[in-house]
Write a structure and sequence with these properties.
Blueprint: H1 14-24, H2 32-44, H3 46-62, H4 67-73, H5 87-101, E1 114-119, E2 126-129, E3 135-138, E4 143-148, E5 153-165, E6 174-178, E7 181-185, E8 189-194, E9 198-205, E10 207-212, E11 221-224, E12 227-232, E13 241-242, H6 245-248, E14 255-262, H7 263-271, E15 278-280, H8 283-286, E16 289-295, H9 299-309, E17 312-316, E18 322-326
Parallel strand pairs: 5-6, 15-18
Antiparallel strand pairs: 1-4, 2-3, 3-5, 4-5, 5-8, 6-7, 7-10, 8-9, 9-12, 10-11, 12-13, 14-16, 17-18
């Protein structure tokens, strides 16, 4: 049952929990177990997500509040009737107080820039709340650099894969750069994967503009929900094609879904979940296609199953890595 006890009783409430989770997720490193616990808490009840998103909105709004006023908001409010919706703002103010203590708002009224870097280790997934209210989910072995300015919200995906849930702001485009590609939005939900030789973009909600990094402003393709594209090493953007976003973002739930994927692509994705990279023996093997589902935390099962699905074998090399070869 939902816990709706008054905060004045000094007991835990959903709003208190949301505030604590919000602050924890601003820390430089969030391990796999903490992320798992957060996701479990978030999925436990719709009100959990509602309260957490409320705090994200407060975080975004804080950038518009003078620092003196922000500090005043952190003062304990006078006792009021239960009918007045005070506690939501009191808890939100407590989050802002912690943020001030951490120096997260030290630049208020001085600069609207925000710079940070977030990454994940082998097998780790991370949920990152950005100061504009946007959220980034990072897959295993992924890294982003964030640089927000007054008129632009910039992200660079250095490696790996990330799902972006972007807060709408027409005056400040949200731009993700990865490899030779660039994705521009004002508010939407999309996934970007940076590979060794190309960058893949998949849209789950809304519309995005995809172009090569050095392309002219009018040289781009638009993607809407259910469409994807790839940007090659030369910055050339492929024509849009239909995709299943749920399959391509199943990594958020610890699954690797391959639907007629080339073994080269499979090996590249699986390598992010293994200590040593997985390789393909030659182009002919790399062009074989695989359709199957595996758990990302048990890629050994995938390697054991491959020989029974395709005419291949898996061998271990001297350096401990493994290679898929023809039978």
């Amino acid at each position: 049952m939902m816990d709706t006890r008054d905060c004045a009783c000094g007991q835990t409430t959903v709003r208190d929990e949301a505030a604590r989770w919000f602050v924890r997720l601003q820390e430089p490193a969030v391990d796999v177990e903490m992320h798992r616990q957060f996701q479990s808490w978030l999925d436990e009840h719709p009100q959990h997500r509602t309260e957490f998103e409320c705090l994200q909105g407060v975080w975004k709004a804080a950038d518009l509040v003078p620092s003196a006023r922000l500090l005043a908001l952190c003062e304990a409010p006078p006792a009021r009737s239960r009918r007045r919706p005070v506690m939501r703002y009191a808890v939100a103010a407590s989050v802002l107080a912690v943020a001030l203590g951490l120096g997260l708002f030290s630049g208020l009224n001085q600069s609207s820039t925000y710079t940070a870097e977030f990454s994940t280790a082998l097998g780790e997934r991370r949920h990152v709340a950005l100061p504009d209210g946007s959220v980034v989910d990072l897959d295993s072995r992924s890294r982003i650099q964030v640089h927000f300015e007054k008129h632009r919200r910039g992200i660079e995906l250095i490696e790996g894969e990330a799902l972006f849930s972007v807060e709408h702001d027409a005056s400040r485009p949200f731009v993700v750069e990865a490899g030779r590609g660039k994705v521009t939005v004002t508010g939407t939900r999309f996934d970007v994967r940076r590979g060794a030789s190309d960058t893949r973009v998949v849209v789950e909600q809304g519309t995005v503009k995809v172009q090569g990094r050095s392309a002219a402003d009018d040289d781009f393709i638009s993607l809407t929900a259910g469409l994807g594209t790839q940007v090659d090493a030369q910055g050339k953007v492929a024509a849009a094609y239909a995709v299943n976003p749920a399959e391509l973002t199943a990594w958020r739930n610890g699954k690797l879904v391959f639907n007629n994927a080339s073994l080269s692509d499979v090996a590249e994705q699986v390598s992010r979940y293994r200590d040593k990279p997985l390789k393909v023996g030659n182009p002919a093997v790399g062009n074989l296609r695989l359709t199957s589902v595996f758990k990302s935390d048990n890629t050994d099962a995938l390697l054991k199953a491959l020989p029974s699905i395709l005419p291949v074998a898996v061998r271990t090399l001297d350096d401990g890595s493994q290679e898929i070869i023809s039978k």
